[in-house]
Amino acid sequence: MNINLSNQVSAERPHIIFCGIRNAGKSSVVNAVTGQNLSLVSDTKGTTTDPVQKAMEILPLGPVVIIDTPGIDDEGELGKMRVDRAMRTIDKADAAVLVADGTKGLQKPDVELISVFKERKIPYIIAFNKSDLFNEVPKSEGNTVYVSAELGTNINRLKDMLAELINREENDKTLLGDLVEENDVVILVTPIDSSAPKGRLILPQQQTIRDILAVNAINIVVRETELKAALSKLSVKPKLVITDSQAFAKVSADTPEDIPLTSFSILFARYKGNLKEAVRGAAMLDKLKDGDKILISEGCTHHRQCEDIGTVKLPKMISEYSGKKLNFEFTSGGEFPQNPSEYALIVHCGACMLNEREMQSRIRYATEYGVPITNYGITIAQVTGILRRAVAPFPDILKELDK
């Protein structure tokens, strides 16, 4: 089954970041590549003051997220904040374009950026801009290209190079394509989420449904109150039951032990490459001490409900499970500490709104400072006593519990 990529969510699109020093023409190159006035352009240094991000479709790249950033050499107190934001944006880059002033060559900040790309294994292209000022345009070689945003010179070549770069980096990972086969029955337990817009399933549920359809399997979607009835009416045993983590306890009780069970949050942790680390991090829930500080982090921003999972339910669950007096702090959206050493534990959402690169960066920040990190689904499974069952569909992950 073909999925229309133009409807692809931003977290699933390759993120391409354009960066470099001020007045190299980053924003002009971005506008030339996108064919839109996506970024404000001026001869004044530092016109771009915040990262500018937009999901769009560009041939031959397909659906992507384009990110323009402030100059990496900005100055002053405000300039330092802009540089910090630009550097944080690199966390989500699947590919990078270093836009350099072709009349000056690579400057020290450019060379430092290249070191960052190499350290984080981010594939990159160096675009030397302002080639219209050359008497003779140098030959483009390797990962370098000489462009003119002013005249459009070699902009198509740059787009072709980006397409080649992205195609090399793309993989065929799916949420559960290796777990489910054609005509298998999968039951999705989807409580009506009060934080979701009226009449709409939340993103993890939508994406899971699409993934099941993509392998020609059969979706059955029910609320937790109808699960027992649905199971009793089936003439075949479901291949898998997937539930919202908040309904774990009831769904586990209502689902026979011989039917595999997991959650949307756990599936997304596996998909983003952080399930193994999340299972390891869950062990910290049994080691918490009075006064420990816990960070609960969400990748999206939304209006908080009175019974919000992140700020209300999880703190209550963790406190009751540990029996300790704990301090909780919260971040959302792009907020995440690069130095989280003050925390005893980080509990992260399923990261459906973050691309894999950004989630991996957050894990790196945690592990560099020796801070355990887990996620919502794993935490709820642990405190309700069903963690082993919840990760049983993934034998390699189950081994982590036996170490």
Question: Describe it for me?
Answer:
By secondary structure, this protein is α/β, with parallel strands linked by helices. It has 14 helices and 14 strands. The protein has helices at 26-34, 76-89, 108-119, 155-169, 203-214, 227-233, 248-254, 264-271, 275-282, 309-322, 356-368, 376-383, 387-391, 395-401; strands at 15-19, 52-58, 62-68, 95-101, 124-129, 144-146, 185-189, 218-222, 240-243, 261-263, 293-298, 327-332, 345-348, 373-375. It has a six-stranded mixed beta sheet with strand order 2-3-1-4-5-6, sandwiched between helices. It has a four-stranded parallel beta sheet with strand order 8-7-9-10, with helices on both faces. Helix 10 runs parallel beside helix 12. The longest helix is centred in the middle third of the chain and has 15 residues, at 155-169. It is globular and about 75 Å long.
Label this structure with key terms.
403 residues, four-stranded parallel beta sheet, 14 helices, globular
N- to C-terminal separation?
A: 40 Å
Task: Report mean pLDDT, rounded to a whole number.
Answer: 87
Share in helix: 25-40%
Low-confidence stretches: 1-6, 40-44
Sheet with most strands: strand arrangement: 2-3-1-4-5-6
Could you give a short account of the major beta sheet? 6 strands, mixed
Please, how many helices? 14
Instruction: Tell me the series of helices and strands, N- to C-terminal.
Output: EHEEHEHEEHEHEHEHEHHEHEEHEHHH
Task: Round the Cα radius of gyration to an integer and report it.
Answer: 24 Å
Q: Characterize the overall form.
A: globular
* Strand-pairing-aware structural class: alpha/beta
Question: Strand content of the residues, in percent?
Answer: 15-25%
Number of strands: 14
